[in-house]
Design goal:
Layout: H1 2-6, H2 10-67, H3 73-85, E1 96-99, E2 104-106, H4 129-140, E3 142-150, E4 157-167, E5 172-179, H5 180-207
Antiparallel strand pairs: 1-2, 1-5, 3-4, 4-5
Helix pairs in contact: 2-3, 2-5
């Protein structure tokens, strides 16, 4: 091999080494991508669960006010709904509350759903998502459910995964979710920046 390499000019050998480095980096990035994607989704799932549990704590706070006779039950529920309705994270992400019927108690984006029976509410694939929320809470107390739902301000439904948790004291379910394409776009943006950095370093190395 060394004899074959000696046949090339020094500049050619350096160039070939640069090509080899690019190929090696590309292989490493291709190997890392699915693992990074899996970990990124796992982190997003965990964050979604945590924010729902935090919002659930708001409901629990007002329920405690009722137990301590600091607030009447109806007033406590109304204040809890208003507090959760105004909560946001990641700019546009929100929380909704439905009951076990299932009927919408409060949706901050689609207020036209408030008070409506959601038993037959289906996503484009025919999944009765609110019934799925109820089933998840009844069997496990809380958990993730996948379905399709439009983003705020848009009409087309896209893949979404939500974490829902029951609040048995008032017969409510509180939930929030992440849009799959948003997570994938974030992952692709990070890997694009990594690829650009590797390319810049390699080109600089070849020029030197």
């Amino acid at each position: 091999e060394s004899v074959m390499l000696n046949r090339f000019k020094l500049s050619t050998r350096i160039f070939l080494l640069g090509i080899l480095i690019i190929v090696a980096f590309s292989g490493v990035i291709a190997w890392m991508y699915p693992q990074f994607k899996q970990k990124m989704f796992a982190a997003k799932y965990l964050k979604t669960r945590h924010v729902v549990e935090t919002a659930w704590g708001v409901l629990d706070f007002y329920a405690q006010q009722v137990k301590n006779k600091a607030l009447p039950a109806e007033e406590a529920r109304q204040q809890a709904l208003q507090a959760v309705k105004n909560l946001r994270y990641e700019k546009d992400d929100y929380f909704w509350i439905n009951d076990l019927q299932p009927k919408m108690i409060m949706h901050p984006i689609k207020s036209d759903l408030d008070g409506k029976d959601l038993s037959e509410n289906k996503d484009p694939n025919g999944k009765r998502l609110f019934v799925a929320f109820v089933d998840k809470v009844k069997t496990e107390g809380s958990g993730f459910v996948d379905y399709y739902w439009p983003k705020p301000g848009q009409a087309q439904a896209v893949p979404k995964i939500s974490f829902v948790k029951g609040f048995p004291e008032w017969g409510w379910i509180i939930g929030s979710g992440i849009y799959i394409d948003d997570v994938e776009a974030e992952i692709n943006r990070i890997f694009f920046q990594i690829a650009l950095a590797v390319l810049a370093i390699t080109i600089a190395g070849l020029l030197l």
